[in-house]
Amino acid sequence: MAEGWSRQLKGHSIAPFSAGIQPKDLDPRAVQAMAEAGVDISGYRSKSVDEVVDVDFDYVVTVCDGAHETCPVFPGGAVIRHVGFEDPPVLAQSAASEREVLDVYRRVRDEIRTFVEALPAILENEGTAL
Q1: Which residues are within 8 A (CB) of 58 and not within 5 positions of it... i.e. 6 or more apart?
Q2: How far, in Å, CA of 100 to CA of 103, rounded?
Q3: DSSP string over 41-69
Q4: Which of 62, 86, 90, 92 is nearest to 74 (CA)?
Q5: Strand runs (DSSP E) across the chain, as ranges?
Q6: How many CB atoms lie within 10 A of CB 123?
Q7: Which of 86, 90, 95, 118 pairs as cysteine with 100 (C-beta 3.0–4.6 A)?
Q8: Are 84 and 68 in contact (CB under 8 A)?
Q9: Taking a C-beta distance cutoff of 8 angstroms, is the pair 45, 5 a contact?
Q10: From its phi and psi, is residue 76 left (phi > 0), alpha (psi between -120 and 50) or beta?
């Protein structure tokens, strides 16, 4: 979802890459939640950090605690920042209905959008707590 928002809202100033420590299949509920907001991520795919480790990043932003704790070292001068968004599939495990599940995805989707709307200024401001 973060890559989708970054491309949609900041594609003119940010070249986003999305990758994970343990890539998984694209989550259909994330695709649905983003489509409801007008962002099509259906063509995206989950990538391994191994696919982007040679990219010369300015910033690496981890968005879940597992990634934050196991984030590899990127060569160059990349500033690594962590933003803790809750993981929708984990939160949705206790949902009583599909509507409740999608509400979780929508809430996290909207939180990510708010963060992306503040980029890149929030990353450039060293005094900003993420």
Answers
A1: 77, 78, 79
A2: 5
A3: -TT----BGGGTTTS--SEEEE-SHHHHH
A4: 62
A5: 59-62, 79-82
A6: 17
A7: 95
A8: yes
A9: no
A10: left
What domain range is 82 assigned to?
A: 2-123
Q: Is 83 among the domain residues?
A: yes
**How does pLDDT run along the chain (130 residues), one tens digit per residue?**
999 999 999 999 888 988 887 788 899 999 999 999 999 999 998 888 888 888 888 888 888 765 556 666 666 778 888 888 888 999 899 999 999 999 999 999 999 999 999 988 887 775 444 4
What tokens does 111 get? 């939180």
CATH of the domain at 15: 3.40.50.2300
Max Cα–Cα distance, the chain, nearest Å: 46
Q: Report yes or no: 58 and 75 within 8 Å, Cβ to Cβ.
A: no
Question: Residue 61 falls within a domain, yes or no?
Answer: yes
Helix (H, G, I), strand (E, B) or coil at 72: coil
Rounded to the nearest angstrom, the gap between the alpha carbon of residue 24 and the centroid of all alpha carbons in its chain is 14
Size (the chain), residues: 130
pTM to 2 decimals?
A: 0.86
